[in-house]
Amino acid sequence: MQGAYPSMTVGSFTILQNMANRNTFGRLVLFIVLGLIIGGVLGEALGLLFGELGELMNAGGYDNIVRNFFVASFDLNLGFPGDKAQPVILDLYLIKLALGFGLKINVVSVIGMIISIYIMKWSGGNR
To answer: Are 31 and 4 in contact (CB under 8 A)?
Structure first.
């Protein structure tokens, strides 16, 4: 029974292997976004951990230098005035559009993005 469909199995395996070896733009964006999200969450978790350790060890309190290194972020807000999450509203009488975009990147997010790009190249890159 193993040799019942040899050409179909070999052909579909070849197609799947070729699809996995392509580095498309969509795949790159997916890996970058996943790396930024996972890195951001890890950065916040490490900041919480080092904040608590700073409290326990009397090393600068909760708001110490090591915690700030992991938690400090670069905020880019387009359409959000100040720190409020209020988008810019474009009222065209018939249609009302709310526009806004916010991005928060910390050090561990950038490291996560670099690692995710490396994993993408290693896992499915052209060898």
So the answer is: no
Q: What confidence tens digit (pLDDT) does each residue in 71-94 have?
A: 888 877 776 666 666 777 888 889
Name the pLDDT band for 19 (thresholds 50, 70, 90): low
DSSP string for residues in 47-113? HHHHHHHHHHTTSS-SS-HHHHHHH-EEEEEES--TTS---EEEE-SS-EEEE-EEEEEEHHHHHHH
User: Measured between alpha carbons, how far is 122 from 80 in angstroms, rounded to an integer?
Assistant: 38
**Where do the domains of the chain lie?**
22-124
Residue 117 amino acid letter? I
Q: Quote the CA–CA distance of 110 and 43 in Å, as a whole number.
A: 10
CA 61 – CA 51 distance, rounded (Å)? 7
What pTM was computed for the model? Answer: 0.64
Give the pLDDT of residue 111.
Answer: 92
Of 39, 101, 44, residue with least CA distance to 72: 44
